[in-house]
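ARCHIVE CARD
CATEGORY: sequence design from structure
SOURCE FIELD: tokenized fold
FIELD CONTENT:
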């Protein structure tokens, strides 16, 4: 029971924080989408324009950005503590989900 009430309180507080920091959250999502577009454009020169080439290009572009963004704090943590960041893959998953949601919204609005 205590765990469920903590989860509910956490989601309410996080919702309030997101609402209060909406412009900054928008800038962060916009950064992820712009970085995805840049990497995708760069990979266009590497892969062929066929169906398989486009699929590989888009998949790689979708994976590179979350790993690259999460790698920066992981390296800083490693330089300070000399061990790997414990939440690295969680950070990658969260960034991937945010980026994918942004891409889906962008795709549907066009």
């Amino acid at each position: 029971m205590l765990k469920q009430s903590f989860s509910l309180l956490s989601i309410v507080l996080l919702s309030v924080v997101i609402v209060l920091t909406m412009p900054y959250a928008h800038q962060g999502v916009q950064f992820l989408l712009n970085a995805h577009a840049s990497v995708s454009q760069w990979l266009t020169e590497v892969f062929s324009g066929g169906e398989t080439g486009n699929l590989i290009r888009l998949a790689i572009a979708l994976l590179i950005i979350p790993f690259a963004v999460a790698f920066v704090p992981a390296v800083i943590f490693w330089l300070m503590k000399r061990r790997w960041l414990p939440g690295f893959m969680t950070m990658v998953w969260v960034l991937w989900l945010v980026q994918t949601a942004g891409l889906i919204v962008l795709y549907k609005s066009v």
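CARD ANNOTATION: The chain has a mean pLDDT of 89. The two ends are 44 Å apart (CA to CA).
SHELF: design records, drawer C
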